Amino acid sequence: MPEDYVPPAVWQEPPPPEGVGRLFTLNRPVSGATHEAELPVGRHPLQLYSLATPNGQKVTILLEELLAAGHAEAEYDAWKIDIQAGDQFSSGYVAINPNSKIPALVDRSGPEPVRVFESGAILLYLAEKFGAFLPRDSAARAETLSWLMWQMGSAPFLGGGFGHFYAYAPVKIEYAINRYTMEVKRLLHVADTRLGEARYLAGDTYTIADMAFLPWAAGLWRGTVYNEARTFLAMDEYRNLGRWVEELLARPALERGRKVNSQVMAERHGPEDFDKLPSDPA
Asked: Which domain holds residue 276?
């Protein structure tokens, strides 16, 4: 940015900066569909349209955990939404998520299809539908929902804030990187402090709050996101968080959920699809 930049009286959409990838050219200041395309529908009542980003992984983790816990009605079809190709702007997708973000779910188990969008809303909907991973006791439920909403509010700082300016922005802006790094480290300290008090975020029970935060935390802890930002963020400071991440990553259902709608598994239509994967996918 030029040092003498002054915001105009009325903002006008600028041309994309030189050197940015296709992902950034998809940003636009209006909502709605850009093209006509219907969404595919599989054989199960639950139809998920998503991508294996941290927000997308939350839902497939819950679905796989529900199946592992014996909830056979949680069987689902997962269809990959390629956000770099603009799939999220199809007429079919906008009809189930006007915000054009992943993930989105359609529940066809009742007389009329029910659409659910926003990852936190989907987690809550499924947990209530199947009576699992959300405590019924009012105090424990409140604690779980508090940590779930904490994660929902934190994600923009982790991804759109820190991740964007540290790893993806075409220019490095010291102020922006410092601003979001400070907030990310504060959030990590919040989680680390809590996990020094309790086994899981909401207490002694594994809940949707853990499933919501794990995909974000695991990438930072293991250094697999944002140009291996683990060293930059000094992740070894957060030992309680690390203990929690490694414990959850050892859960087979959780690891299955992290693979769905990814490069190794674009679509998922039944448990047999996992048998088709390489023994140790990258």
From this structure: 1-133+264-282
Domain contains 256: no
CATH number, domain of 76, equals: 3.40.30.10
Mean pLDDT of 59-65: 98
d(CA 39, CA 52): 18
* Domain total of the chain: 2
Q: Does residue 143 belong to any structural domain of this protein?
A: yes
CA distance 51 to 101: 10
Helical pair 208-222 and 54-68, crossing angle rounded to 10 deg: 130
Q: Is residue 67 part of a domain?
A: yes
What six digits make up the tokens of 169? 């922005």
What span, in angstroms and rounded, lies between the C-alpha atoms of 261 and 237?
32
In this prediction, residue 5 carries a pLDDT of 85
- The mean pLDDT of 122-142, rounded to a whole number, is 98
**17 and 88 share a domain?**
yes
Answer yes or no: do 190 and 241 share one domain.
yes
Looking at the predicted structure, is the pLDDT value of residue 61 above 80?
Answer: yes
104 and 161: one domain?
no
